[in-house]
Amino acid sequence: MSDEVPVKLRPEILAQRAYKQGKPAPADSFKLSSNELPFAPLESVTAAVRGATEFNRYPDAAAGAVREALAEHYGLTAEQVIVGAGSVSLLYQAVQAAAGPGDEIVYPWRSFEAYPGMVALAGATSVQVPLTADGAHDLDAMLEAITDRTRLVIVCSPNNPTGPALAQDEFERFLAKVPADVLVIADEAYIEFVTDPRALNATRILADHPNLVVARTFSKAYGLAGLRVGYMMGDPRILSAFGTAAIPFLISAQGQAAALAVMRESDAVRRRVNEISARRDEVRRALLDQGWRVPETQANFVWLPCGELTERVDGMLREGGIVGRAFPGDGIRVTIGEEASVTPLLAACWRAIERWPYLRGDDAPAE
Ligand SMILES: Cc1ncc(COP(=O)(O)O)c(C=O)c1O
Prior knowledge:
alpha/beta
């Protein structure tokens, strides 16, 4: 069968690669490819999901109880919160609401792999602003990329897949220079893992910037990736437009029950997150000692810059029982997982950097 699609479809969609999920891991390997939390779900959360059995009924489309609980947590009104089927779903809605053909969306690159696809689906144009050499946002270049056609600017802090967080003060200076009628989304999917007190927490300045929307999720620190619940906070008029772009009933009753239950488990969640953040710092330190150029990371993953050697290093990690997320030609993102994954990860990374000294950033050719 030829690869040619037999009917007329939108060429910009055909040109786009579909979102690719992190690879599954064989039984004897660690799956460190999707930035998930490695711990089993908390008992109270599992019980809440088990209790949500009325699935002959549609779920609450607005996830009202979750919205109320989040509003209370953040000191906002329920209208300043919108819940979606994962924050990715809300990002799609935001892009649909903000931009169409001829409009531009500015975001850092490399960043979350789903951004290009959502822009293409809207028929809008991606303006990708390269990261700095150390994997951070280049906010000056992002400002320069804003034109009359810009409808949305996305920042991702900490940045997936490289790890650095924006500093609060640099983001505030940036935001002050963005035209007030241009929507800015701060995608803070990994903020719970942040330990640097200078790092951005965009909710602090929501009240002063009606064009700012903050995106967060229960998928990462809260361990609900499989139940699909994320949220955004911002001006009710903007969020209401995002709601118009929603596919109804995507947030399951089980996801809503789990989100409510996990919000009541803040101590257990904090302990788990602290464990991952501490392990992240240990892993990064060990990798730096090996000679890797791992950017500073405030998330639950580390970035291994591998350039043209990416696929070969990925193969070596796999042989060592580590399934990371390889971005060919660029690098590998490795999620911080269970404690038992650390030794095989560091051993495989050591074998790779011994084999290819080029990974240290030396000029040595990559044979
Ligand atoms: C930066 C970023 N934003 C958003 C998401 C979406 O997460 P979810 O849809 O599970 O809330 C991810 C997931 O990998 C992410 O890395």
